[in-house]
Amino acid sequence: MGATQLSTKHLLGIKYITKEDIQLIFETADNFKEVINRPIKKVPSLRDVTIANLFFENSTRTRISFELAEKRLSADVVNFSASSSSVKKGETLLDTVNNILSMKVDMVVMRHPAPGAPSFLAQHIDANIINAGDGTHEHPTQALLDAFSMREQLGDLEGKRIAIFGDILHSRVALSNIFCLKKLGAEVMVCGPPTLIPKHIGELGVEVSYNVKEALKWCDVANVLRIQLERQDIKYIPSIREYTQYFGINKALLDSLNKKIIIMHPGPINRGVELSSDVADSEHSIILQQVENGVAVRMAILFLLADKR
Q: Fewer CB within 10 Å, N- or C-terminus of the chain?
């Protein structure tokens, strides 16, 4: 019999949860996936729970996914988006949150450009905190929905080979994915230009490759990340065209492998840069399943954390 409760009251990062927590989230998400495919998609599980979505950084998919998950669970939802400029000081952040808490909010879903902002909040306020992405640090719900989507395709991830391609240096998705996949017993490789791979990433127990074809031959799943030009203060690559030439994944490349691999992408896709359209829309791709699974996984997390109140 697995765990029936999470070991933590917050979801601040995959680093801080256990393998049992991950399995419990997946089992709960399996149930919620059935719910969201019913004609009546709502359940009263979080009636009387108030959730504030605090987005200090732009996000369309993550915010909509959380909002949908909250509404499917019948929670009361407060949306708050702030330009990051007014929230540069920790003090202002705490003021903002205290104002929202005085409205009697039970849970806070937060995206913030500063790494560690959700942990800072968790130390100062009583609500459950869910990290929806903090700077280039972690994005735990994305990693959980990615691993959940892989599990749907491959079953148990123990011993499976997962390669993460692209801008590893600026990606919170990559870090959370590495933590999550390693906890589930998968083998992980990162692949990209040397300038976009952190120097000491091997210490996390991952292999490093600078050759896309070799990495594709090695893996069962290719999780492809976008080049995050908005987070790059200096030029890490000579040009987008050159990146695509050496690190883009296209149909001809996949056809040359003599095996079928699963293609994933957390979105938004730069079509024609890291993935060609004929790959993004191919039978290899589970990108749209990831989006659907995102709602079920986030419902599971909200439901399980509410249980810790």
A: N
Buried b (16+ CB within 10 A) or exposed e, 288-302: ebbbbbbbbbbbbbb
Instruction: Read off the pTM.
Output: 0.94
Q: Hunting for tokens 């949150």 — which residue is that?
A: 97
What letter represents residue 14's amino acid?
A: I
CATH code at 140-286: 3.40.50.1370
> For the chain, which residues make up each domain, given as ranges?
14-139+291-306, 140-286
> Which CATH architecture is the domain 14-139+291-306 placed in?
3-Layer(aba) Sandwich (3.40)
| Two structure tokens written together for 94 | 């705490």
